[in-house]
Amino acid sequence: MTRNPAFHPPADADARRAVTPVICYPVETLPKPDMALYLGARDGVRKVDEVLVPPRDARCFRVPAGHFFRITSVDGPQVGDLNLWRADDLGERFYSGKTRALHGSHVSTGDRLWSGLPWLRPMATIVADTLEWYGIDEFGGAVHDVIGTRCDPYTGNLLSGTQYHHCCHSNLTRALAEMTGLSLLDAEPHVHDVLNVFMCTGFTRETGQYFMKASPVRPGDFIEFFAEIDLLGALSACPGGDCGAEHSSDSAPCFPLLVEVFAPAPGALDGWASPEVNRYDRSHGV
Fold first, then answer.
1. How confident is the model over 165-184, as pLDDT tens digits?
2. Where are the domains of the chain?
3. How many angstroms from the chain centroid is the CA of residue 191?
4. Fewer beta carbons under 10 A from the terminal one: N or C of the chain?
């Protein structure tokens, strides 16, 4: 954003600024999740797997369609960077940009995580969020953003010449390579923009810059998802800890994150089916 414009504003500048905004993607016709069904199915679940993600590292996990997975803060305030792929095809992966366009810059209960084109279907639905009370604070900050990309070694090198290897991008790359057997070079292109779990972020009004502030998450807080399709997930416990001061840091206090997978009771999801891929015919006008 230009800080010191080189051109004077036109005579009708105020009128141009006063134009009423239009929502880009009205969601009245967006297919809505059956939250009553999902919440009912949560009552009788049994835990079938868990993965503890160490500080400044990442781990992968699998969630069958129709199961739930929960990310919980343990030991201390910690944010995490989440990637999702279709379990049998890494090409279908979480699309943070379209999720942001449909649900807003931050997500919570009832919002869905969408996959990229050409699939464009729900991958997971948020069914519980102990931080939904936070809302939007006086700085414009909110929790669980789909605007940040993930801390990465390339930006660190660009800005400060560092070679830092435990940022979220590198953590996710290592975890995916270990889970799939891919080399680091082959795994890295599959790592994508994230859901910043528990992270509190926004944009400054003066400069439009992306900011972070100390997360309100505390041990025991969690966010829980319903898997709409078979999922492979990867979660990084960010080296910034609660991201109240810095990221890509070996000095910030960092804590583990717990991922738990739950299976519903037989019959609890009767009538439910995984969403189909997008029905656009892909002819592109030809």
1. 999 999 999 999 999 999 99
2. 48-263
3. 12
4. C
